[in-house]
Amino acid sequence: MSYFDLNLDLSPEDEAIKDAARRFALEVLRPASIVIDKLPDDADYSAAQQLSFLLEGLDELRQMRDSLVVNGTEVDRYACHGNAWSIYFHDPEGNYLELYAHTPWYIPQPYGLPFDLDQTNEEIMRSTEQLCRENPGFMMETERKAKARQTMLD
């Protein structure tokens, strides 16, 4: 099967999403890669603000944090973004890394308050939901995804 055969059964919605992804690649990813390619070979800085890695949930985030700490890595920020819980640290090469897990809620960004990953999952969920519901832009993540999808299709 060739690449072109993959487009035979796409619905109009799927075609619109594919076109939006193509535009994103051309308008955002390609220009960024051109800038990164121009960095000198001996650059002692990163062109990326941070590298982010999505985890399954609070248990995995806590497990990864514990592993980092046991191995001598300092976690320098714990942030509840409303839509995610994150920890931030530097790798041995100085890159700033984020490990994060999604919440079921959405609030407008930027937003970030400290949170205690040593609390139980239930305590973290309860306090995060309360923070989110106090925000005027609060909605469930499923609602935000539906709105984003519709925006892409319009």
Task: Tell me about this structure.
This protein folds into two domains: about 10-45; about 50-154, Signal recognition particle alu RNA binding heterodimer, srp9/1, CATH 3.30.720. It is flat. The protein is built from four helices and six strands; from the N terminus they run αβαββββαβα. It is α+β, with helices and mostly antiparallel strands and about 150 residues long. About 40% of the residues lie in helices and about 15% in strands. The model is unreliable at about 1-5 (pLDDT under 50). The strands form two sheets. The chain has a four-stranded mixed β-sheet, covered by helices on one side. Strands 5-6 form a two-stranded antiparallel ribbon.
CATH topology grouping of the largest domain: Signal recognition particle alu RNA binding heterodimer, srp9/1
Q: Roughly what fraction of the amino acids lie in strands?
A: 15-25%
Low-confidence segments? 1-5
Given helix and strand content, the structural type is alpha+beta
Tally of helical runs: 4
- SSE string, helix = H, strand = E? HEHEEEEHEH
Which class of the largest domain in CATH terms? Alpha Beta
**What is the β-strand count?**
6
CATH architecture field of the largest domain:
2-Layer Sandwich
The side-by-side strand order for the widest beta sheet comes to 1-4-3-2
Distance between the termini: 32 Å
Most strands sheet: 4 strands, mixed
Average pLDDT over all residues: 86
Question: Level of helix content?
Answer: 40-55%
